[in-house]
Design goal:
The structure is a single chain. The protein is of the alpha+beta class and 452 residues long. 43% of the residues are buried. It is built from 21 helices and seven strands. The strands form two sheets. Strands 4-3-2-1-5 form a five-stranded antiparallel sheet. It has a two-stranded antiparallel ribbon with strand order 6-7. Strand 2 and strand 3 form a beta hairpin. Helix 7 runs parallel beside helix 10 and helix 10 runs parallel beside helix 13.
């Protein structure tokens, strides 16, 4: 399309010097003037673009993408800067003014969304803002090559953006038009850190973060707790990712001092193998080389693993953390926390005592005693009063869980099985409200989506 002011420098500069409210009506002309032969006009156009609101520029922003490959390097550089400004402004307007369409409806001629562009150019801030606001509405959008933003980030080697996308629920193995998944693309382009991250995600357990094989070591470790970090990891399954469902786990560091410390992971999960009580060593020698062998020490779904096995799968910012003076030296443990009933005693905080608290939440129950309930009780047992958490993640799902259970639909999945049980037991009673935890309206977390 012919530029309205092409070759008319005086008219072009007059337009570009207009008030921003007037410029909004000529946003398309301003974009076109980025390619004007006159350098002064191009510079004025770049300045004018910064003054435009994203909502005014949005219908013409794909023109900026067209300029990225302009034969004049100055034009492509200016277009990239203008596009970044537009992306930042658009994500900000979407958040502050509820202008979601400015972000969600943007597409370049090849079908790229703003999230694709952020992944291409390494705009970490923009990617984080857009992905956290819109999640499944944009994280899995594909362009004309059937590529999602994760494909693009993997190709460019932007590990930070890969972390953000996966943390916001992006599908990890979508295939592009050539049948390639992001991991394959990262390998082809030699981005080792991205390869390491995406490969580690392929090994993530569906019901827990760690392997649960650190029980024996943790029970022998009597060192005091130095730090506790409450992490969440996105659950697999399109529905779970779409609603932002997470699995909770605690990274617990113990030691005499930080130089000689070790970090364990404590989490509660729906187990996919027979549970074993402490001291039960009756392994079946003919259990297919141990594939179905129960984990030692697993009771009520409580698993203890090593942090180094889990770290690569933790991509979200911590929900809460305790270090230094935030960590209580002792806690008041009732006999309920030890598995019995009776008086209250003061106990040193160790992995053994924290496991006892997790066990006291009872058998795993999706509605009343899931991973978040256990994490909340254990975290608060380690915290000084003013650092205790009062709520758990995914509270908004609680009524849905109860409703589905009462009509005979079980949204929990143990291991790889999917269950739509017609005869379900009544919900378990909620665990006691201890350590300042608010358990009113016990929360559902769709631990693993079965509605996919």
């Amino acid at each position: 399309e012919k530029q309205v002011f092409c070759g008319d420098t005086v008219a072009a500069l007059a337009l570009l010097g207009s008030d921003p409210s007037e410029l909004a009506h000529h946003a398309g002309d301003v974009v076109q003037l980025l390619t004007d032969p006159n350098e002064n006009v191009r510079c004025a156009a770049a300045d004018s673009l910064v003054a435009l609101e994203a909502s005014a520029l949005a219908p013409h922003a794909s023109g900026l993408v067209d300029c990225l490959n302009h034969r004049n390097p100055a034009v492509s550089t200016t277009a990239a800067a203008a596009l970044l400004h537009f992306a930042k402004t658009a994500s900000s307007e979407a958040r502050e003014r509820n202008h979601a369409n400015v972000v969600c409806q943007f597409r370049s001629k090849r079908g790229d969304s703003l999230l694709h562009l952020a992944a291409r150019f390494g705009w970490s801030e923009v990617a984080a803002s857009i992905a956290t606001q819109f999640r499944a509405r944009l994280t899995d959008v594909a362009n004309c090559d059937a590529e999602t933003a994760l494909h693009v980030a993997a190709r460019e080697g932007h590990l930070d953006i890969c972390l953000v996308l996966v943390g916001c629920g992006a599908r990890e193995n979508p295939r592009n038009i050539r049948g390639h998944v992001p991991l394959t693309i990262a390998k082809k382009h030699g981005h080792d850190r991205v390869v390491e991250f995406l490969a580690s995600r392929a090994n993530l357990e569906t019901v827990r973060g760690g392997t649960g094989d650190a029980f024996d070591e943790a029970m022998r470790d009597n060192r005091a707790v130095l730090a506790v970090v409450w992490h969440t990891i996105p659950l697999p399954g399109r529905l779970a990712k779409g609603v932002g469902a997470f699995h909770s786990l605690l990274a617990i560091t113990v030691g005499e001092k930080e130089e000689s410390s070790h970090t364990y992971v404590l989490e509660k999960a729906a187990v996919d193998r027979s549970e074993r009580i402490d001291g039960d060593d009756n392994d079946d020698a003919d259990d297919n080389e141990g594939k179905n062998r129960p984990l030692n020490g697993v009771l009520n779904g409580v698993h203890i693993s090593h942090w180094h096995e889990v770290a690569n799968n933790v991509v979200n910012l911590p929900r809460a953390e305790l270090t230094g003076e935030d960590v209580a030296g002792h806690f008041d443990a009732t006999e309920d926390d030890k598995g019995g009933q009776g008086s209250t005693s003061t106990s040193t905080i160790t992995m053994r005592s924290l496991r006892a608290i997790a066990l006291a939440t009872g058998p795993y129950d999706l509605v009343s005693s899931n991973c978040h309930h256990a994490a909340l009780r254990v975290f608060n047992a380690c915290a000084v009063p003013n650092r205790r958490q009062r709520t758990i993640p995914n509270l908004m799902h609680v009524k849905l869980a109860g409703t589905l259970r009462h009509i005979g639909i079980d949204v929990a999945r143990s291991g790889q099985s999917r269950s739509f049980n017609s005869a379900l037991p009544p919900p378990a009673s909620p665990p006691p409200n201890v350590y300042g935890a608010t358990t009113r309206g016990q929360a559902l977390v769709i631990e693993t989506s079965v509605l996919v």
